[in-house]
């Protein structure tokens, strides 16, 4: 399965950013699966709490139609990350999967962060579609979104339901004022946790992140410098391809989907799970 991860920056407007996205997709020659980063059409507006940004979600249906047409034109499976208005006052951070011109399915982000510069709980209602792989012509895609990538439960459930690849559209970065050693720890943790999901579930994994500096419009914080480093790893966590931390890039790799069986045959983690002993996982904290 030939995949392309589109790592890019925000270009000052939705129109200019989409224009650049289309140019990068054009460069992803022969790709069967193209994955775009989280909230790829606009700036990462969750740096502050401002009701004007809810207007972005009003265009959800038009956005779906637009990217559906793009997937048809290029004859690709396309993962797009969109701001969905389900009803006035009810919004989701939603990944929609298009399969060569048809809507294959969607996933609403389940884990919603609320941290300085990442005020997503103000904008997004937690997803209610569960962790369901999406059936496409290139396989069953386990699509999750950004903050979901820190939770092994999400990746595990996708794997147990038959996902053949884990996919994480992402928007994550650091603050320029952070010390360099702290920046490196954060980046290492981000890569390591996702590689661990690939290993624990014996699945290839695609993680695509944005790049570039985006200023906080309120001035409360300086802004976020998104660290890129989009990557593809195999079912043993091996890094197969990786982008840098500042360039717009089409990261391509031809995944050997047959390796999942080979790896799971020698590392049978699913076989040895003690499902009779995991009841504690259904509690917030096991203090009883």
* CATH topology type: Nitrilase/N-carbamoyl-D-aminoacid amidohydrolase
- Assign the structural class, choosing from mainly alpha, mainly beta, alpha/beta, alpha+beta, or little secondary structure: alpha/beta
Helix content: 10-25%
Strand fraction band?
A: 25-35%
Low-confidence stretches: none
Query: Could you spell the SSE succession in H and E letters?
Result: EHEHEEEEEHEEHEEEEEEH
Which CATH architecture would you pick? 4-Layer Sandwich
Overall morphology: globular
Neighbour order of strands in the largest sheet: 5-4-3-2-1-15
What is the C-alpha radius of gyration, as a whole number of Å?
Answer: 18 Å
Determine and state the CATH class. Answer: Alpha Beta
> Whole-Å distance between the termini?
47 Å
Tally the beta strands. Answer: 15
Please describe the biggest sheet, giving its number of strands, its sense, and whether it closes into a barrel: 6 strands, mixed
